[in-house]
Write a structure and sequence with these properties.
This protein has a domain of 87 residues: Beta-lactamase Inhibitory Protein, Chain:B, domain 1 (2-Layer Sandwich). The longest helix is centred in the first third of the chain and has 22 residues. By secondary structure, the chain is of the alpha+beta class. A four-stranded antiparallel sheet has the order 1-2-3-4. Strand 3 and strand 4 form a beta hairpin. The radius of gyration is 36 Å and the shape is flat.
Length: 178
Amino acid sequence: MTFRFTGAFLTSLLLGVGLAGCSGLSSGINQDTFKPYVAEVVQGNFVSKEQRQALRPGMSRAQVKDILGTPLVASVFHADRWDYVFSIKRQGVPSQNFRVTVFFKGDVLAQIDNDELPSESEFVGRLVSKRQVGKVPNLQASEEDLKKFPASKSASDTTRPTGAALPASYPPLEATPR
């Protein structure tokens, strides 16, 4: 009876101490501590402000395709419409979505509908993450600093092992044909 009471008491005591220890654990953990890494993703066909400015009504489909590339969406049901859509998803930044729609009449560009597009330099700037650069150390050594190190051997001393004579001739690298 005493052993059973002591075992139950020790088990409940151990369980209580364990739970009490875990209760203080959440205060030291930040919400971002166990967040997985999310890679930067650019999806779709990037269309720059410069590409958009190169488009003119009256251009052929082939000319539009040369400037913008293959459309992301070219529907059979809407043969007179091409959609170019792209998005940038980065960790900690809201998703950025861009859209360009070109409309044709027959084989000729009739109308262009688009969002505000970034220029090529703005787009690259959005992809490059800014790194914090610390203080750059001085990489020049003074004469006093150089005197602290022992003098190195000259290059001619390190290329040939001491006491080993070089052979007068070497065997051929490839076998001669017979």
